[in-house]
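Practice problem: predict the structure.
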Amino acid sequence: MVSPVEYYFEQVRLAEAAALMAARQWERLGSDLDKWPEIAGRLALIVSAAQVRAASNGIAYVEDEVGPPVAKVQAKSFGGWASDGMPLDSLLYGSIVQSRMKFGSGLTDEQVMAFGGNWLQMAVQMQVLDAGRGASGVAIAATPRTGWIRYVHTPCCQSCAVLAGKFFRWNQGFQRHRRCKCTHQPVGQGAAKGLTSNIAPDQIHDLTDAQRRAIADGADMNQVINAYRGVTPSMRNRMITTTEGTTRRGWASYVKRTRAQLNGEQVAETAKNVGKRGAVKNYVERRTKARPSPELIYAQDISREEAVRLLARHGYIVGDLKGVARLSLP
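Answer:
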């Protein structure tokens, strides 16, 4: 049986081989984009064949991993079409469109053709990989009691990093990020083995300096990354704040309430939980306020100790709830 990692790299090698063959066809143009009809048919056949093979690999992998589907999935139906449903030849022609847009921009003819060739290779790789993803998605939907595990190929973006190793239901696939090679691997009732679940900050290519500093100072990487889902601009200092985690069940709200209780302050509770001590999960939030982002914290002229206190106060440091709340006290 092929392991998830072996399957992943087999698909990548197939996509890269198709991209290399596409690059050779592109070289036949020289610097004359009007020769596109001479290579268009052959190019579409190359990519379509690679798509069908990738789809066949995806279907076979699902069957090996979780058993045969209740209905047969046709691999050939995934060839000749782009990920968005367009005919494949229309998408491949995008390399010509993108190249023509570069003429007159100050680039030499050789640079324009190199740009177009790179665009074409990237498009081919993504279409082959997407065919495999799509076929495995159909196969997993046709197989009872199955789901997905997110496989992250590093280096990766921060959006993928927080989802590494997470389990998803059969119908909860993900929309691939731009130029992202991460995939969902089908699994049965048990977890898949050999899949990356712990991503180090140096394996994430798009973290900001403030995010890296916050993580180095002890902030939880997931809290730091997820905070950017609710960012809004701050007009006063042109930095950003976030509402992520500030709902009544958010970690930042738990820290806020526990800190208030440690200070002897009165906090609002539902009638069901009046008299209970500690953080109350169904606490009624009187007003939800945004919390500062790591950028806003590190933009201030403060010491590292003060930065750590603010990270704890605003829910970026996780752990024992009371311990974090005490760390956040002045």
